[in-house]
Amino acid sequence: MKRLVIFFFVFLSLSAFxxxxxxxxxYLDDGNDIDAFGYVLSGTTYYEDTCTSSTQLxxxxxxxxSVTSSTNSCGSCNxxxxxxxxxxxxxxxxPVFRKWCSGSSWSDSGYCTDSNLKCYLVDSTCAASTCxxxxxxxxxxxxxxxxxxxxxxxxxxxxxxxxxxxxxxxFCEDTTKTSETSCSDDIDxxxxxxxxxxxxxxxxxxxxxxxxxxxxxxxxxEGACESGTQTCTGGSWGACSGIEAxxxxxxxxxxxxxxxxxxxxxxxxxxxxxxGADEGVCQAGVQVCQSDASWGICYGASYAASEIEECxxxDxxxxxxxxxxxxxxxxxxxxxGSDVGACAFGTQSCANGTWSDCTGDIEAFPEICGxxxxxxxxxxxxxxxxxxxxxxxxxxxxxxxxxxxxxxEQIILECTSDNECNSGYVCTRAQCVYEGSSSSSDxxxxxxxxxxxxxxxxxxxxxxxxxxxWIYVLPFVVVLLLLFVFALxxxxxxxxxxxxxxxxxxxxxxxxPFQVQQKNISxxxxxxxxxxxxxxxxxxxxxxxxxx
Length: 548
Fold this sequence. Notes:
- There is one protein chain.
- This protein is an alpha+beta fold.
- The chain contains six helices and 24 strands.
- The strands form nine sheets. A three-stranded antiparallel beta sheet has the order 1-2-3, with no helix packed on it.
- The longest helix has 37 residues, at 463-499.
């Protein structure tokens, strides 16, 4: 049962489809009519009368429910219409032939010039200064409006869209379009008889803003603007006769006519201003405003030569501070050390912000008691210094007290001769020294040289006495070393003699002289000889010297 129902519906659908496709309808003409444009609608297909050449027409018409066509010869074929080579209306003008009807034939004599014929009023190719308003030149697809031939919106129903000789050119297939898709293609896209701007769908669109010839006021009298008038041409408003608003130019004028002058402008072209800064090594310059209302580069300015101070006495980073972070200024010098007592100033040089070591100075050294000089540069001379105050200096072998000048009578001033010193003072070692102190020093020198064998006085002798002392002591040291070697040999030999057998005595002829002497010594009593005493004294002196 279901299969029968489905078959029935399929049958009905196919029947309806066959019925729709078998429908044939003639439009605009009576069917097989070559003197008028027409078309046939068969189902959903359109068949239009068409010129296959300038003298042949293919005519479509319905024959029952089917579409039939025929080919016809013409005097001239234009837009699906076949124009006969003969005519019947006297003096009728035909733009297709560009001829007028003379009797029963077409003539071109005086076609554009004969004022009686007036064909120039209906044919745009005659280029006359006038034309008959609303006349359609169906060969050139133009229409007359205010003595001017126009082609814009030719197929609009308000112009030539309904003209019998223009139906073929203006034919519009019915489509699914419901609005004008373009407002400037001279095509009735939605087939409603209105083309482009004449269709309400194009109101306000570009090219459809106004009707040709209309006028309106424009611009304003604000700022640099001036009001004027605009005229509509080709569906668009023309230029304003006044002065309209423009982009702001930063020229001290209100170019955009908004009531504000040079808003958002950085500067006015041509203006100048100072730039940079007169700080440190930097110098200010001048900037000029460019044509784009922006400041140019800073001319004549010298910027910071360095971001880091170079310790050269200048503000290199132009921050208002000179040589910050530097210990000194490069290539400068300063005194260093001390000039107290025997000390003397030296010099330090600055390099890269740092002082060098002190050079050329005389530094302090331990105080030498009795030379009347402040050797350690502490402002105290000899006995004034706590070093010498605790240990008085012996100036001779005697136990008499040393001669010491009063505190106020020590070093007074530098000198080169005794004449430069005060009374009672002598010039010694470039210093004015109390005369008693000088003589004591001389006595000390002579006493030291005469008693060089006494090692207890070596701590107060001068460098010259020490040198002489070693000349005398060195030989004693050598002798002492020899005796020490001999003593070692002697002890060794004595031990050997005690442990030897009696047979050894028979070989005395082969003993060395030292062995004979050893026997004699062992028998003798242990008495110290003069030589032994002398060596012992020398040894004690040497021991004292090395201990020092």
